[in-house]
Amino acid sequence: MTEAGPVARTAPLAGSRVADVAIIGGGYAGMWTALAVRRLDPVARIVLLEAAVCGDGPSGRNAGFANCFWHLFDRLEAAHGRDRALELCDLAAASVDAIGVFAREREIEIGYRKAGHLKVSTTPSQDGSWLPALRACERAGRGGEMVALDAAAVRERCDSPLFRQGALVPQGASVQPALLARGLRSAVLDAGVTLAEQTRVRRIESRSGDVLLETDDGASVRAGAAVLAINAASAGVAPLRPRLAVTSTHMIVTEPVPDLLEEIGWTGGECISTARRHLHYFRTTADGRIAFGWGGGRLAYGARLGGRVEVDRQVVERLRADILRFFPGLRGRRVDAAWGGPVDVSPTHLPGVGTLAGGRVHYVCGFTGNGVGPAHLAGATLASLALGHVDSLTRSALVEPRQPPVPREPARFIGGTLVRAALVRQEDAEDRGRRAGAWTRIVTQIPERLGIHVGR
User: Fold this and answer.
1) Alpha-carbon distance 155 to 266, whole Å?
2) Which residue, among 35, 90, 87, has the nearest Cα to 383 in the 3D structure?
3) In terms of Cα–Cα distance, which of 177, 176, 174, 195 is closest to 57?
4) Closest by CA position to 195, among listed 47, 358, 354
């Protein structure tokens, strides 16, 4: 957010308001929803309520990978059938393009670069992990959506000593996340949306004819429909607790190193992630830095998102060591910033859009760290739901997806922490060319046996 600069907060909500659509949460999904509602209904009364400042949460400080769902096509096809899987992947890919169109039409700089998403292996156990999705794309006549690369082709794009082989998803793009968040916030204000920041909603009551929202400060909104787009805080909403667990991810960013990028040939702008289950992910920035992250942070208990979920110094130190394994030429170079944040993880690793009991409160949750692109699609879908439309968006596989429930607390936290520790042990052993112990391997298999997808 530092690069995007400060903004003057809007005033908290005061008194009572009436709206056609009230949106809770000023991240990407909430702001895209507001803009989609305005597009569908130019005279709709829209109120957007944000507890802090729009975009200051995970939306403004993520990795900036704007990806679609082609890397999960085999799983989507198995769950929903080929036609619905193709439809959803095409909708998600169109959202990636729509983000670039938004920036061009608004004439704003968000660092949008459509250079593809490169998935790589760094150990033998990761080799070919993308092949089920790639082959499913080929069988569906969409082989160009994922392209297999051998070791030479991968290292021609980025010459890390750890890279073995990979696959490129050409539809992938990257953005500077904070600039996109600020651009959306300005667009929301320009669209005539009532934006109330510093406004935390403490109560939602779905009634027969409307929804009543009450804030911590005693203000209220009565609306025809409400939208919940609150990321990991969804774990604090009782009906949504079985739909997600909350974990954390962390990033560091180096000083500018354009000379190193030239040396290793990483000048094409690809965003890259490993095929680990606790994956590493990294991209270059406009000023020649490397932004480098790891998705292996600790779990949160329920919806308690503070402390190590935000910044875990142990994870940051691990990142400092890991980045040197990937890019030894960084030795002696500075790390200029480090941060963390919560991730709302769904059992399928896909977000879900739905409607709570009563039919007037709609939600999205479970982006699982892949929300930059899908948030646009979710916003468009939520807008249609809130306005009562029935269309291709509200009929898509993103809406009310079937998924196994995550365990309740404290089993979710205790079990998730044990599985996380086992996965870290296993993948660290594989990085050293060793095999993890039998007990560790057994524990890492528990989520899949419960129908819960972990990583890759």
Assistant:
1) 9
2) 35
3) 177
4) 47
